[in-house]
Design a protein that fits this description.
The structure is a single chain. The protein has helices at 65-76, 88-101, 187-209, and strands spanning 2-3, 9-13, 24-25, 43-51, 80-87, 106-113, 115-116, 121-122, 131-139, 146-152, 155-156, 162-163, 165-171, 175-181, 214-219, 239-242, 247-251, 255-263, 273-280. The protein is of the alpha+beta class and 290 residues long. The two termini are 27 Å apart. It has three helices and 19 strands. The radius of gyration is 18 Å and the shape is globular. The chain has one domain (13-22, 42-255, 274-280): Endonuclease/exonuclease/phosphatase (Deoxyribonuclease I, Chain A, 4-Layer Sandwich), CATH 3.60.10.10. Strand 13 (165-171) and strand 14 (175-181) form a beta hairpin. Helix 1 (65-76) packs parallel to helix 2. This is Endonuclease/Exonuclease/phosphatase family protein. Keywords: Signal. Residues 1-30 form the signal peptide. InterPro entries: Endo/exonu/phosph_ase_sf (IPR036691).
Length: 290
């Protein structure tokens, strides 16, 4: 295990802040005339986590994962997609599919490459494109720049030349949506990366930019009930769901996770799709940064 100087990047996408208005409000009984009318209803959205194993270099690569991912997005029409093990061009291609299922909306796509320790550059797919993680969502206020936070984890496994990364997007001031792909060669390293992301990086963003309900989806390469246990890096009160193996969605206490579903990928990659419904209740205090 090696600890490197902390690298943190904040950038702005000129395509706009993300998501909320297209998300459906939760259904509630009609208020009586005496009931307050300024109580915000929860924002409800559907989130899809995919690991496509699409570098062209790994043993799980089939060359068919992108076609299946496009099909799943077309069928499920999620509001938020977190993507692991993709090439930069894959995000561009799925951007078009995502736009098709959200006509009239402005789509925001963010990508963060994994580092390559031997070269000091980005890790590359077999086709030469940058390799890493991505995120897709759609926006309410496209005229307002959208803030993206990204970086590499300060702790990496020296046995693996790939330096694992994380990525977050400010979703229209309603949600901080994040993804990561943690170490697969050193499970203790993966646990350290998970701890640092949830206990240091995300609270730092909250302190600097203002707290928002936060959701993280990704292949954490950790399991519940195993040693090390993914639950040991989940902050108190946070909710978590998983695919029964290595993919997880975790959220702050002001987000309710429900309706978990596994989406078959039919052998195109070694992970199922993980589909989760989020209900964001901004009237309910979350876990504020320390």
């Amino acid at each position: 295990m090696a600890t490197r100087p902390y690298r943190f990047l904040r950038r702005t996408l000129a395509v706009g802040c993300l998501l909320a208005a297209a998300a459906l409000p939760a259904t509630r009984p009609a208020a009586s005339p005496a009931a307050p009318t300024d109580v915000a209803q929860p924002t409800v959205l559907r989130m899809l986590q995919l690991n496509l194993c699409n570098s062209g270099r790994a043993g799980c690569y089939t060359g068919r994962a992108m076609a299946r991912a496009a099909e799943v997005i077309s069928i499920e029409a999620p509001d938020l997609v977190t993507l692991n093990e993709i090439c930069a061009g894959d995000l561009t291609a799925l951007h078009g599919v995502f736009q098709t299922v959200h006509p009239g909306r402005r789509v925001v796509a963010a990508f963060q490459a994994a580092g390559d320790r031997p070269s000091g550059d980005d890790t590359r797919c077999r086709n030469g494109q940058r390799f890493g993680i991505g995120l897709l969502t759609h926006v309410r206020t496209p005229a307002t720049p959208s803030t993206v936070y990204a970086g590499t984890h300060p702790t990496q496994d020296l046995a693996d030349p790939e330096e694992r990364a994380w990525l977050c997007v400010d979703v229209d001031g309603v949600l901080l949506a994040c993804t990561t792909h943690l170490s697969a060669t050193g499970y203790r390293v993966a646990l350290t990366q998970c701890d640092h992301l949830l206990d240091t990086i995300l609270p730092t963003i909250g302190r600097n930019a203002g707290y928002q309900p936060t959701v993280l989806g990704g292949d954490l390469n950790l399991r519940a009930g195993h040693d090390p246990d993914v639950r040991s890096c989940t902050p108190p009160g946070h909710q978590r769901v998983d695919d029964g193996r290595l993919q997880h969605v975790t959220a702050t206490t002001d987000i309710t996770l429900c309706c978990r579903g596994l989406v078959p990928m039919h052998g195109t990659t070694d992970h199922p799709g993980l589909l989760v419904t989020l209900a964001i209740d901004r009237s309910r205090p979350g876990r504020r940064p320390a």
